[in-house]
Design brief:
single chain
Length: 355
């Protein structure tokens, strides 16, 4: 794996791990982030039986996302209320205004649509093809703001669009509320709260501090090591292929520019790596690794920059698995598209994965 051959890591404090073949020992330690006094699950609260409306509020106690999703799918009243509240949430959500680009009703700009609107230059060398939305598609990748996204075989075009739509909306809303470099944890919490309000089931998760005892390390190696316990071999290979595809881009390629512009500023950064797939029962899931960092040197290409170890670089990292309630989300799709307009021209780029 790129960047992992000469670097090894040890994950402590209960981080999930997999055995690897002939892997060297590690010099990176992960420790829990300090908790505020009285911030436990029952601190200062009176337990009440939740009303139907209260049950729609974001929950941070979810552990089994698929079981929670199945409960939601069996409750038509929940679906109606969640969709109604989600539509109001999207309408009131504040996102930055980055100019007047607008194609009503569209967010992901495909090749045919770009030609129709005279936007060919915006997708030059960008292989985000016009595959049928309702058909399963081969493994692909995408840059979506500060995300390197990968999709395994079998995800439909509509599901890919839905994922990219949701993630872009959540990023823009989080950007409006928080400085992503200075407050990556609060940024990510708000980001996931947006996802939860548009149909995703978000489990409980926590950030951990990470420091390296090595003289130098690269971020792509940290990504692979952190996600190893979360992803299957096929998912990991798809993530690695997406990272390699970004690495292969020319310096001026719009997709690399998008990711750099949205993931790092000078000596601090915040980015995500995701893998999306569909289970045998048809559940759409997104496995996510989130990374925030501050370092002593100006960072160029964040995934392959040679970071100084020790106290020179600090990171906060987390990993989690989200699933999408497509019954709820399908009722919010148009509202999200209309909110975003065609901001995909500035934030989305497809990635061709190597076979």
């Amino acid at each position: 794996m790129t960047g992992a051959r000469d670097t090894s890591f040890t994950l402590e404090e209960g981080m999930p791990q997999k055995k690897t073949e002939a892997g060297p020992t590690s010099n990176v330690k992960i420790t829990p982030m300090p908790q505020r006094a009285g911030a436990g699950p029952s601190a200062g609260r009176t337990v009440r039986r939740p009303s139907a409306t209260a049950a729609l509020a974001p929950s941070r106690g979810i552990v089994n996302v698929e079981a929670t999703l199945q409960e939601q799918l069996q409750d038509d009243r929940y679906t109606e209320m969640k969709a109604d509240m989600g539509a109001q949430f999207v309408e009131n959500l504040q996102i930055p205004n980055y100019g007047d680009l607008w194609i009503p009703g569209y967010r992901v700009i495909t090749e045919a649509l770009a030609k129709e609107y005279g936007l060919e230059a915006a997708i030059e060398d960008d292989p985000f093809s016009d595959l049928p939305l309702d058909q399963p598609q081969p493994a692909t990748g995408a840059v979506d703001g500060n995300i390197v996204a990968s999709f395994v075989d079998g995800v439909t075009g509509q599901q890919k669009n839905d994922v990219l739509n949701c993630c872009l909306l959540a990023q823009l809303a989080a950007n409006f509320r928080f400085d992503r470099e200075e407050n990556p944890i609060e940024w990510t919490k708000f980001y996931t709260s947006v996802l939860e309000n548009v149909g995703w089931v978000v489990p409980q998760f926590a950030f951990r501090g990470l420091r390296s005892n090595q003289a130098r390390f690269t971020m792509d190696a940290v990504i692979i090591r952190l996600l190893t316990g979360l992803l299957s071999q096929n998912e990991m290979e798809t993530v690695q292929a997406a990272i390699d595809a970004v690495k292969a881009l020319d310096d001026g390629d719009r997709r690399l520019v998008i990711f750099q512009r949205n993931s790092v500023e000078e000596k601090a950064g915040n980015f995500q790596v995701t893998n999306v797939g569909v289970s045998a029962t048809g559940v759409l899931s997104m496995k996510l690794g989130a990374f925030g960092f501050k370092t002593s040197e100006r960072v160029t290409k964040v995934l392959w920059f040679s970071f100084a170890g020790g106290n020179s670089t600090s990171m906060q990292v987390t990993q989690t698995n989200l699933v999408l309630n497509e019954q709820v989300h399908s009722r919010l799709r148009d509202a999200i598209l209309n909110k975003l307009g065609n901001r995909g021209l500035e934030y989305i780029g497809g990635l061709q994965l190597a076979d």
